[in-house]
Amino acid sequence: MKYFLCVVLCVSAFTLNGQINDRIKLTVDSIGSNVASIGTLAATFNHKFKSDSDKVGAAYYWIAKNIVYDTQTYFSKKRKPTYNFKYKTQEEKRRKMHKVDMRIADEAFKERKAVARGFSIMFKRLCNNCGVECEIVAGSVKIKPKDIGRKAGRTNYFWNTVKINNKWFLVDVAMGAGSLNEKSKTFIPNYNETFYLTPPDYFFLNHYPKKEEWLYCDRNNEEFSALPLFYQSYVDADIDLYLPTEGTITSVSEDTLSIAFVHRNKNSTNALPNDFSYAFEADRKAKVIPADVKEDKVKLQIPMTKRRYDYLTIFLNSEALVTFKVKTNTL
């Protein structure tokens, strides 16, 4: 399935997150992309916008619309180190790292391309120059089927936490810019607000910080490892996964596998969806599966493959919803 060939760094907009209103977007569009420096752009934002929330929204929107992912650096087998210096004290290290960050942000802004760290540094500098507290968060992301069952380990990604009205929020502007395709090694621009002020429990589905205080929810690395891989339709459909509760499923080869979903909003009066299909990794196309809709639950019975292990993806309206790793035990 071609869908497994793509590393999706963009999972289209969560309906639960903060939305940037059209007034802010129209104002930012009027500023344009031909801006000389981060400082100049921040000064313009300070002139155009009064509230911290508007300035943060403007920073996110401008970066996601004008900066592309640096595919040459990302796909390079010999990535250049971002810094190489010696230090005697933590304070000396902090000062030197600050200079490195300034250089990375300036180069990324000038070239209009960056990897995740560059996106996060630019966002922090824009926010800070607008008088808004913002920090860079280092951590790990779950973006591919093979990440199911893996604990967050070494840092491989960066995002931000920003303070608005005395409350800290989570932001990933790199994912807001678009997606990377590993097969073609190209960047696909696709502005979205998936990870803009997203509630921590949903941000957690794809992000795990090195410093757990930046989780902002009562979750842990074992739970992150156990998660299935969620896609945009999971949120767009306004449903929550009910069964199974983990991403790795052990089943007997002759059995069917039960998958169930419920309304995310318990008070919702909307009908539960029923246009589901499924596919294992080697399948050429997804197969339609009947949905058993009863009151507040929709249940699917998936015929199991005889392979020892496989990836199973559930689709809703032909859009990938969630992927599981299935391990089959023979009797």
What percent strand? 25-35%
> How much is the average pLDDT?
88
Q: What is the helix tally? A: 10
Radius of gyration of CA atoms, rounded to a whole number: 21 Å
Largest sheet entry: 6 strands, mixed
Q: Element order, helices and strands?
A: HHHEHHEHEEEHEEHEHEHEEEEEEEEE
Name of the CATH architecture of the largest domain: Roll
CATH class term of the largest domain: Alpha Beta
Cα-to-Cα separation, first versus last residue: 29 Å
Question: What is the SS-derived class?
Answer: alpha+beta
Low-confidence stretches: 1-15
- The percentage helix is 25-40%
CATH topology of the largest domain: C8orf32 fold
Number of strands: 18
The geometry reads as: globular
Assembly status: single chain
The number of distinct structural domains comes to 2
Protein name: Transglutaminase-like superfamily protein
Organism: Saccharicrinis carchari
Pfam families: Transglut_core (PF01841)
Textual characterization of the structure:
This protein has helices spanning 22-31, 38-48, 52-66, 71-74, 90-111, 116-129, 173-177, 200-203, 221-226, 232-236; strands at 68-69, 113-114, 134-141, 157-164, 167-171, 178-181, 186-189, 207-209, 229-230, 239-243, 248-252, 256-263, 276-280, 287-289, 291-294, 297-303, 309-316, 319-329. Residues 1-15 have low confidence and may be disordered. The protein is built from ten helices and 18 strands. It has 331 residues and is of the alpha+beta class. It folds into two domains: 2-227, C8orf32 fold, CATH 3.10.620; 232-329, Immunoglobulin-like (Sandwich), CATH 2.60.40. The strands form five sheets. Strands 9, 11, 13, 14, 17 and 18 form a six-stranded mixed β-sheet that branches. Strands 5-4-3-8 form a four-stranded antiparallel β-sheet. It is globular. The protein starts with 21 loop residues before the first helix and ends with a strand. It holds the Pfam family Transglut_core. InterPro entries: CAP/Cytokinesis_protein, Papain-like_cys_pep_sf, Transglutaminase-like. Residues 43-172 form the Transglutaminase-like domain. This is Transglutaminase-like superfamily protein.
